[in-house]
Specification:
three-stranded antiparallel sheet, 16 helices, single chain, Cyt_P450_CS, Cyt_P450_sf, monooxygenase, alpha+beta
Amino acid sequence: MDREALYRDPYPVYARARAAPGLTFVEELDAWLVARHADVREVLARPDDFSSKGALRPDVIPAPAAFAELAGVPGNAPVVLSTDGEAHVRYRRPLTRGLSPAKVTAALPFIQATAGELVASFAKDGRVEWMAGYARPLPAAVIGHLLGLDPADVPGAVQAGNRAEDLLFTPMPEDRQVAAAREVAALRRMLAAHAARSRTQDNLTGELSRGLAPGPGEPAPEQRDEIVANTQNVMLAGHLTTTALLGTLVHRLLRDRRQWELLCERPDLAGAAIEEAARFEAPVQGFRRTVTRPLELAGTALDEGDTVFVSYGSAGRDETVFERPDEFDIAREPVRHLSFGHGVHGCPGALLAREQLRITLELLVRDLPGLRLAGEDVVMAATLIHRAPEELFLTW
């Protein structure tokens, strides 16, 4: 199996790994696969033994010409996702404040208005490509709003953020790498200027700016790098995960018509539907961890420096935890999944994602109860970072 095939459908590999004794080394991941629910939970609960450094190791090393475009541009610093200990606590604290339940509640009117406008923009057409028409623009607008970005700047900022991902995870010829790096450089300069204006403002960028550069005066260069890097990271993570879940949730509800009809009959199952979508297709399929000392996990001896791939996606299909794990069923008895992480690296934006999904389901059930798939051929994107359909055509 090549890497693209694994990324498009990792579940057979996961199933074999869960059934095998110990851990399975997967060449395409260049890592030991942690596939069982209990083992995933154990690794996430032991950050001292399994470091987050290198959590998102690139699949591609950009050409020197691409790196040159980023030379001297703010933003070359670690982020919350790939740090441990005190650095992780320091990076996470402003995100926890900026994405608190109170801040998410305050954003609900914006989310509801934006979601309503998007649905209204295509409701009369009788057909929409869901990912481009709704699943991408809603979370992008919402994270832009929370960051305090000018709405006119959000589409370009999100596109440039996506180019940052492409640069590290999509093979491209050198000229496209250079073009992508230029977009990323422009984004980082814009975020640096926005952070400077936001130090006294009540938004997520302001929280990051004050939290990572406390005290009066201008941030030091290394503090500015941290602010820009972590602002770019939360902007990307803040919409990709929710976009993926919006794709999965609607796809799975409509693929088995009984699930959609049940939700229309019982809108109170919306919360259960959201959790089932997260369990069934974890939007982030997994992250890497680096072993910090010789140890044993699931009967497999690991050495310091070894890499494990901690698969949330596989944990959600564990037969020992979930009945009929390969069936999407919004009426199943709820069991706690790990798709938003666990422990110190649990997703700080999980509540924000859930509220966008809840508002979306309320809108669709009310305004488009006749929703159905326009075709059965749905191709999943070749990525483990935000698992979702590449395109999803709907009609009603």
